[in-house]
Design brief:
Radius of gyration of chain A: 24 Å
Low-confidence stretches of chain B: 505-513
Structural class of chain B: alpha/beta
Strand content of chain A: under 5%
Strand order of the largest sheet of chain B: 6-7-8-3-9-10
Helix content of chain A: over 70%
Number of domains of chain B: 3
Structural class of chain A: mainly alpha
Mean pLDDT of chain B: 87
Shape of chain A: globular
Distance between the termini of chain A: 16 Å
CATH topology of the largest domain in chain B: Rossmann fold
Largest sheet of chain A: 2 strands, antiparallel
Number of helices of chain B: 17
Oligomer: heterodimer
Strand content of chain B: 25-35%
Amino acid sequence: MSKSKSEPLFRISKRDDISFKKALMIRAIALAAALLVAGIVIIMIVHVNPFKVYGTMFLGAFGTRMRSWVTVRDIMTLLCIAVGLAPAFAMKFWNVGAEGQILIGGISTVFCMKYFDNLPTFVLFLVMIITSMLCGAIWGFLPGFFKANWNTNETLFTLMMNYIAIQFTSFMVAKWENPFGSNSVGIVNNDSMRGWLPSMFSSSPGDDYGWNVVIVMIAVVAMFVYLKYSKQGYEISVVGDSVNTARYAGIRVNKVYIRTMLISGAVCGLAGFVAVSGASHTISTSTAGGRGFTAIIVAWLAKFNTFTMIFISALLIFLDKGASQIASDYHINEHVSQIITSIILFFLLGCEFFINYNVKFKKSSKKSKEVAA
Amino acid sequence: MDTNLAVEMRKVTKTFGSVVANENVDMQLRKGEILSLLGENGSGKTTLMNMLSGIYFPDSGQILIDGKPVTIASPKDAFKFGIGMIHQHFKLIDVFTATENIVLGLEDNKKFDLEAASKKVLEIAEKYGFQINPKQKIYEMSVSQKQTVEIIKTLYRGAQILILDEPTAVLTPQETEKLFAVMKKMRADGKSIIIITHKLNEVMEISDRVAVLRKGQYIATVNTSETNPQALTDMMVGRATVLDINRPEPVNPEPRLVVENLTCVDEEGVKRLDNVSFTAYSGEILGIAGVAGSGQRELLEAVAGLYPVKSGTIVYSSDYKNSKSLVGLDPLSIRKMGVTMSFVPEDRLGMGLVGTMGMTGNMMIRSWRKGKSFFLDRKSPDKLAQKIKEELEVVTPDVNYPVRRLSGGNVQKVLVGREIAAAPSVLMTAYAVRGLDINTSYTIYNLLTAQKEKGVAVVYVGEDLDVILALCDRVMVLCGGQVSGIVDARTTTKEEIGLLMTQFRREGAKENE
């Protein structure tokens, strides 16, 4: 033997099970490490006390009553999209078309606000919710239908549908332009506030976002029950695990594809309604703003458990709000604050590896010599 | 130090998570001998050999080659020490020729010369009595030819120590004879050979010594000439076992499933089943034998409504009346017609079970649709899961523990248990005992016989001919998607079935020439 290869430095094996306590501890360590590393970066780049920066982040998200409500509002919108993605992803149907489904839901909401504003308030909201879900469902149906009948690739298909939705939104924005030449729709029903989701604790809309919470939480609970306890939810899990097993069990896979995508699109469409009627009161090509993709991260990290999604959406939105606050308070480039949130995310996502895998380091050299002797 | 030893393994331990695959295993391979490594499924035979061939690295322990301690960290290291392993699943590239596969990955710093390599391949083949065409592509080869390529691949690299992992599992009795002849020639040439197997008659026939593993532990090594199958079984299982299968005569058999001229083609348009006709009777076990991939899977799936039928008929009947055609129906429609057909598919986790769910979730595969409620009924499947867990002694921490984390034998128990619990009138099983230990295998045989006595038409696709001949009433032999014969299991012989298994393929080979 010319050169002796020794035992590898470390070995990685998949964990069978990990206790909840241990998983929580790994996450806590990850958070501590994240704050430490981010702190070092802050000192090196912006030369300020990192604790002050973290404090600023917190104030950015929860500093005032209004800020807290806006944070909650944004959490709810992201959460709603993630809930919409849950059934499709549980079925291993890679719906990356939430962006488009949100936009279509948003357009239909604006349409109702503009043309049905003479309906009684309650009926108007009902119509808005139903049409936004219906339009989102159509956007989800198409890729599902094509997958079921011609086995098209759903990732490409749903992605393309996003671009169609964006172009369609541009078209509608041009059509509804107000004032003329502004290239934007402006705030719809700015005077009458018709179709604006009301505040729960006050008479003026936008004072709080209680109803956003109510609508989204209904979706969270309903989707949880649907996936876990209904027969259709069972079908989704079986299809997601193995299409062959599903056929064997007498499940009509094509029907499940289409039905689930109808539901997934509908809930994403509802998110469009929440984003327009419950927040921006306008529509533009950036209404979805990448949240359809961020929600994929939320859905995955939560392993499709809609209750876990609440915490993950909250974390992502908190980091986002905190980052913009740092940028404005310390007059630093927005990118620097994004570096900080990226560091925190890197650690928090990276620690999942240590939760799923066990890393064993090489035994001390003394011990391995004993074995060799 | 014993210089007569080619390989010595001392106190080798390997764990996967909490599973101990090998614990302090000692093994010695002498130069120029054939050693059988015997043990039940899951006893750690393949793991042990994988450590010798560099695929796994031991947690602790020591390996000596020719008396010198060595570190084998990769398959490349293993080749350096002259160790070659022929895996159960061949590692060949289909679109390459035999020679191309053999020289693939070789680094000898010489000019790449396929002609010279082919010549050397032929020399090796001649020396040991292989039959091979170096220019034939792998996809044109039969299973036994592919195995030949794998063996020559290791010899080409100068292997002195050969490890064969269950080489006879995919061979007909005649092909097995040929392989054994080659192995004896290699032994005469001074090569040391380890053969992993759990077929006792082969152990007795080919090996000089037998090393027995049980549940990851080394039990003993004995000289083949001084032992017998019963003693070996007892060592393997750890207690005395009875190797008899009770086979009552069928009572009042009547046609239950009549298949006529069934032809199926796959997505590429290749015929998988060609004019298959047979009848499965109630109260009997119909065995289906054949080399792997002769159409067994397609046949069962076609009957179950999972494989498209091109032409032919499948008719289900009960009590000579109520004939129902099953062609063109999916499993749901078949069940809605009132035909209770149970099916244990070959691909357990890919077709029969949902790996991410527990036993309860998997019981629902059969029952989830019951009732008009929008919601699932979890109570009765949960009860059934508990019952199967107790009756078949399924080792699982909980009925909701994901079945993909269970061992192969336990997975199979869950599947077979569920299918029998459905009280079928037709029960089809593909390789029902694959991966099971001896005791559980016999439990399954008894369950199948009990079903037969209840008047169920049982179809048993198997690979072990000894078992097929002892368990079944009639045996249908498939070859290349065609029925090459249906024989009485009580009067036929292994040799007759072996010939039928290759009959059509030989004709096909002639056409090619």
